[in-house]
Design a protein that fits this description.
By secondary structure, the chain is α+β, with helices and mostly antiparallel strands. The chain has 9 helices and 17 strands. Helix content is about 15%, strand content about 20%.
Length: about 400
C-alpha cells in the first residue's frame, strides 16, 4: 500500500496528514472554527457528521393582521414584540438600591405618606422621626370650626406661610389644608383663603409645630469627656463656648438644656428658645433621657428590677423608667437606661447604690432627639422636622 493509501485508510484512527492536522470526519473543525460546533452537535463523538446550523428565518408579519390575536398553539416568541426597553439595559439597573450608581426611585408625590405630602418631607438635613405622637384630644366637627375668627385680612395666605417655612410646595400645602391636616392656634383649617399673621400664629401640620421665627436656634452638641457644661469657666477648663468658635452662632446667647458632669459624655441641647429650655428641664413635662452605662461585670439578675422599682438616695427615692442589657463582655457590661429625672448625677448615684459604680456614661437621647452617628465634639443644627418633634414633646 502506498503512503497516501495508508493515510486515508479507516484503520488509521489518527488520520493525520503530513502537516500534523486532524482531517478525519469526526474531529473536523468545520468552517475553520476550533471545535465549538462539532462539540455541541455530536457530544465529542466522531461517528456523526457535523451539520451546519440552518439560517434563522425571519417571521413575516402581515400589516393587515398585525393587531390580530395569534393562533392557538403559536409560540410566545412569535407574539408582537414589546416596545418597552428591558430594565437590565438601564444604567445601574442590576445594582442594589442605595448603592453608588443605582437608579433613584421615583417620588410618589400623590400617594399618602409620600415625602412630598409629609411636613418637611423634602428636607435635606436632620433625622426623619416619623409621625408626631401627641396626646389624643377631642375635636369638634370641622363644619363648626369658626374659620372667620382665624382670618386676618392684613395677614399672609396660610399656604404661602407654610411653603415659606419649608413644609412643602404651595400646591401640596393647599392639599394639606383641604384634607384638614393643618391647625392654626389650635383650630383645624380647611379653607384655602384663610390669612394669618406669621408673627403671632401657631401653626401645626399633622401635629408638627412649624417654627416661623428664624431667629431661634436649635443645636445638638456631642460633649466629650472633660468638658464643663457651662458657656464660660473661670478656672479655664474646656467648656461649650470653646466648640462654638468655628460655628456661625458663636456670638449668640445660647442656653444649654440640662447639665452633664465633667466625666459624662453625650448629648447636650443648645438653644436660645427660653420657653423650650424651661419646659425641657421642668419635672412636670417628664422628658425622657436615654443613657448608655458601662459597669464592671458580671451583672447579676434582679438588679435591673431593683433599679426599676426604685432605690433610696439621700434626696429621696429614684427609679429608672426602663432597663435593658445591651452587651456583655468579660469584665464589662453595657446597659441602656431611660429615666426622666433631672437630678444631679442621678445615674451614677443610682448605680453606686446597687453596688455597681459607673465606669463610663454617655447620654444618647433627650426626648425625640438622638445623637445617631454624630462625631464627638461636633455641633449640628437640628432639622425643622426635629424641631417640630421637640416642641411637640413639651406641648408647644
Amino acid at each position: 500500500m502506498t503512503q497516501a493509501g495508508r493515510q486515508g485508510s479507516p484503520r488509521n484512527g489518527s488520520g493525520r496528514n503530513s502537516s500534523g492536522r486532524n482531517t478525519s470526519q469526526g474531529g473536523n473543525f468545520a468552517g475553520g472554527s476550533r471545535g465549538g460546533a462539532a462539540k455541541r452537535g455530536s457530544g465529542f463523538s466522531g461517528d456523526r457528521p457535523h451539520r451546519a446550523p440552518k439560517p434563522r428565518e425571519e417571521r413575516f408579519i402581515d400589516p393587515d393582521q398585525a393587531g390580530a390575536q395569534p393562533e392557538r398553539g403559536a409560540s410566545d416568541k412569535a407574539a408582537k414584540p414589546s416596545s418597552r426597553k428591558p430594565a437590565a439595559r438601564k444604567p445601574g439597573a442590576k445594582k442594589a438600591p442605595g448603592t453608588p450608581g443605582a437608579p433613584k426611585p421615583k417620588a410618589r408625590t400623590g400617594a399618602p405618606g409620600a415625602a412630598a405630602s409629609r411636613a418637611f418631607g423634602s428636607e435635606r438635613f436632620g433625622q426623619n422621626l416619623g409621625p408626631v405622637r401627641r396626646p389624643s384630644r377631642k375635636k369638634g366637627p370641622r363644619g363648626e370650626v369658626p374659620q372667620s375668627e382665624l382670618h386676618d385680612a392684613d395677614g399672609v395666605r396660610l399656604q404661602k406661610v407654610m411653603a415659606s417655612a419649608g413644609v412643602a410646595s404651595r400646591r401640596v400645602c393647599e392639599e394639606m389644608i383641604a384634607e384638614g391636616r393643618v391647625e392654626v392656634d389650635g383650630q383645624v383649617v380647611t379653607e384655602l383663603g384663610v390669612r394669618v399673621d406669621p408673627q403671632t400664629a401657631v401653626i401645626h401640620v399633622d401635629g408638627l409645630r412649624i417654627q416661623l421665627d428664624e431667629n431661634l436656634v436649635y443645636m445638638v452638641f456631642n460633649k466629650p469627656k472633660g468638658v464643663v457644661s457651662t458657656m464660660e469657666d473661670p478656672d479655664g477648663r474646656p467648656c461649650i463656648s470653646d466648640f462654638l468658635k468655628s460655628n456661625k452662632n458663636k456670638g449668640e446667647r445660647l442656653f444649654h438644656v440640662g447639665r452633664l458632669d465633667v466625666a459624662t459624655e453625650g448629648l447636650l441641647l443648645l438653644t436660645n428658645d427660653g420657653e423650650l429650655a424651661n419646659r425641657l428641664t421642668h419635672p412636670s413635662y417628664e422628658v425622657p433621657k436615654t443613657y448608655l452605662v458601662q459597669v464592671r461585670g458580671p451583672f447579676p439578675q434582679g438588679v435591673g428590677a431593683q433599679l426599676k422599682a426604685g432605690v433610696e438616695l439621700e434626696d429621696g427615692l429614684a427609679a429608672v423608667d426602663s432597663f435593658r442589657l445591651v452587651d456583655s463582655t468579660p469584665g464589662h457590661v453595657l446597659i441602656e437606661v431611660v429615666l426622666h429625672s433631672g437630678k444631679n448625677r442621678i445615674v451614677r448615684r443610682m448605680f453606686d447604690a446597687v453596688g455597681f459604680p459607673v465606669q463610663r456614661l454617655v447620654r444618647v437621647k433627650v426626648g425625640p432627639i438622638g445623637l445617631g452617628d454624630q462625631r464627638q465634639g461636633s455641633i449640628r443644627n437640628l432639622g425643622k422636622q426635629e424641631v417640630g418633634h421637640l416642641l411637640a414633646s413639651v406641648g408647644l
